[in-house]
Specification:
Length: 228
């Protein structure tokens, strides 16, 4: 099994002053490594190695690892240490069942509550995704798509919804990156964005249902290919 090998601050020493958000930055980096495919199922993460590569102490690395365990992206086993988890077929099915309920709710709430500045930011993310799609930049496209989903939840402005989604963030992010039909996914994002912009609650909900079903079909096809 391989170990992690990327940097947050290349060659940088551990910071002199404590950074209260350092654990969050390290969590984001490690999550991106997993979701972008830099780390694969079974790869081992070593606190000391990661801390040295990121130029941080081991404490924020340990905190980040614990958070990602909670998100279902990492696991810890005796004599194996911390490794990247393989998401099971059953998990995928169950996550999509939950996603159908929560993302439809998020889209409907966003359509009801979106402010002009929210719409502008959401449209900018859709444009960014289109740019990445046309350039063939898969990693950037996946991150833009994930940002679109995050923005819709933010616009929905429901703290309970955000809290319920938080433990699923890692696995949802992984599923969003199983994007075998990028043109279709992008088109659906654009349609949902415009429904939110026009405050059409019913249409936003209907489009969100269709989008989750499209994503489910794409993810299942990808999983079948991986298993085959």
């Amino acid at each position: 099994m391989s170990e992690s090998s990327a940097v947050l601050t290349p060659g940088g020493p551990a910071p002199d002053a404590p950074d209260p958000l350092l654990w969050d930055r390290v969590t984001t980096v490690l999550r991106d490594w997993i979701l972008d495919g830099r780390l694969h199922p079974g790869d081992r993460l070593v606190e000391r190695t990661i801390a040295e590569e990121l130029g941080v102490s081991r404490l924020p690395v340990r905190d980040a690892i614990n958070i990602l365990k909670g998100e279902g992206l990492l696991t810890s086993r005796p004599r194996q240490g911390v490794t990247v988890r393989r998401i099971t077929h059953r998990e995928v099915v169950e996550i999509f069942e939950v996603r159908l309920a929560l993302e439809v709710l998020a889209a409907r709430l966003a359509a009801a509550r979106a402010r002009p500045e929210d719409v502008a930011e959401l449209r900018a993310l859709v444009v960014s995704a289109r740019t990445s799609l046309e350039a063939g930049e898969t990693v950037a496209l996946n991150r833009a798509n994930n940002a679109i989903h995050d923005k819709i939840v933010e616009i929905a402005d429901n703290d309970v919804l955000s809290t319920v989604l938080a433990p699923l963030k890692g696995r949802l992010g992984w599923l969003l990156r199983q994007n075998g039909r990028p043109e279709l996914i992008h088109a659906e994002h654009g349609e949902i964005c415009e429904a939110i912009a026009s405050h059409d609650v019913e249409l936003a909900g209907e489009l969100a249902v269709r989008h989750v079903e499209t994503s489910r079909a794409v993810a299942m096809a990808v999983l079948s290919d991986l298993a085959g």
